[in-house]
Write a structure and sequence with these properties.
It is a single chain. 11% of the residues lie in helices and 29% in strands. It is built from twelve helices and 41 strands. The strands form 15 sheets. Strands 6-4-3-7-8 form a five-stranded antiparallel beta sheet, with no helix packed on it. It has a four-stranded antiparallel beta sheet with strand order 18-23-22-21, with no helix packed on it. The chain has a four-stranded antiparallel beta sheet with strand order 35-40-39-38, with no helix packed on it. The relative contact order is 0.09.
Amino acid sequence: MKKILFQNVIVTVTCLLITSSLLAQSPQGIPYQAVMRNADGTVMASSAVSLTFMIHDGTANGTVVYQESHSLTSNAQGLVSCVVGNGVVSEGNFSSINWGNGAKFLHVMMGSVDLGTQQMLSVPYALYAGGTHVSVSATGDTLTVGGQSVIVPGISAANPTINIPTSGLGAQVLPGNTTCANEYINVVGCNGQTSLTYDGRTYDLVEIGGQCWFADNLATDQYRNGDAIPTGLDNATWSTTTNGAYAIYNNDPVNDSIYGKLYNWYTTVDNRGLCPAGWHVPTDCEWMYLEGSLGMSVLDQQMMGWRGSNEGDAIKSSFDWGIQNGNFQDSYGFSLKPGGFRSVNGGNYYDNGINGLWWSNNIGASGYPLDRKLSNSSSTILRGYSLSIQDGFSVRCLKDSEIAPIQGCTDGAACNFLASANQDDGSCLYQNATCDDGNANTSNDVINGECVCAGTQTSGSGTGAQLLPGNATCATQNISVTGCEGQTSLTYDGRTYDLVEIGGQCWFADNLATDQYRNGDPIPTGLDNTTWQNTTSGAFAIYNNDPANDATYGKLYNWFTTVDSRGLCPIGWHVPTDCEWMYLEGSLGMSVTDQETVGWRGTTEGVAMKATTNWASPNTGATNSSGFTAFPGGYRELNGTYVTIGSYGIWWSSTEYGAFGAWYRLLEYLGSNVNRDGTSKQDGYSVRCVRD
């Protein structure tokens, strides 16, 4: 048919890890904030980041009701922020999500790296409220929630008063506080609890204005999941680290027992959790709520610098401070003690017994975290920016708004560790541990790298079945035999594709036409002949650059797109392997011997796959009895020229051929069977997607 040319390709993959947090705010979107880290734990400062968000309905693997992507750049501290609902939409409509119908799960990907899926707890209910309304009448109101309606007597046009809470669960910080107008505060109370033991140390608790606080500075030497927090850093390392760490003032255990430990800011936002389950490092606005509860005006709360009047004296411990120039009343039992700090400048310690500084977990407009400071020479409270994220300050923990237990795996060593869980449910799974996948046709079952129990296929059929008994080429490869489950079409990147189920596999019944990867990154195109021939990265072309060909036959992709880590097919789909093509051919009647043969094989399998239109005459025997609807999109050769549209259809597999080529499938207008061969990765062929 044609010469096969090869070219060496070297691909370097860098894995990225992300820590993230979700904050529920307005119904128009869900704010998302993340600190980006490299695989070695260092912060990804000032780096380009592509995030994809999917919202699954019902379960973590449920239907994707919404998908969007964001192209972001981290700041100097590795922080990125965006609003889910305001990105580049690839599926669904954010405003049309039915938050009242079942659970919702947020799935996050960074490029092709799957960052996991987490049930959305408070967020859906904030958005769910957008679908709640009341129809007023003289005798009662019709309250509609999530499509269900009920008559509520006694609340009518004659009684229109709306009570806006200023305290209690989910209350706004304070009326008039514009800085925190959209942030809801954890005002859950201590429920009579007066102390809590964490990591072997007992902390007093205090309730102020409905908030429940630690009444002692934190002193843990490990994260919530049991991982040790690094310590003992020399001055140079302390000043440059971009990971969580703590220090004890002057390395004196007496200071640890009185004042607690000094943590850099990285510990406060580590996804392993610094405070115990059900507690967290307070936000800047939660500090403001506390100050408002002490009597500080709304105007003063929002100011930078020293603010208020005597609120500082009201929460300072009446002892363990140095020379006291104020009236340290500790009126509320908050018992702040001056632990001093460890400076980023040389790693030196300062001000123990004189000043105390406490972190919030927020980055301010300056690009540095916001903190609180009290001094033995002032009765007020300073709200300021730290000099550096590497400074070491004290920490107080604040109780979460979620009182109900969150069950899950709480062991950080498990592959299904759930950082938000505060109650272990015995579900922890450990990679390489033996298990039973319940399939009689597998052996050597273990928990694999995807945290799923799976074994080596021995015989049988069904999901993950061996291709065909006797097929030595694919003897150890499991095939995606999941069916279409009644789904007949799928919309991806603005184009709707018909689906067809053949032998239990679910295939696209149209050639792929996307111009971007799954994460939203554009696939390069418009390459001249020389560049097309020499590229070793993904690219596509449209036959003769004619949009009509794109509409009918889809795009032509080089092989590099099919294995790009960003994903060419939509979530839950992939470019088929050589063995998955063989399974399809076997489902159409091709013998095992023919499946493994190179060149033209089989008898009438091509007839069953070819569409009955858009082929050149005579389109030998075409019936499309399988519903595969193969169209002859032609191809772009290695040298950049376009050939054989209408006469040939060629489709990539994702499997390499030899050292440098890749396998494909070919149908032609004069043939009734199917060609299997290998060719140069720079050729441009059609693509079909098969379900995972």
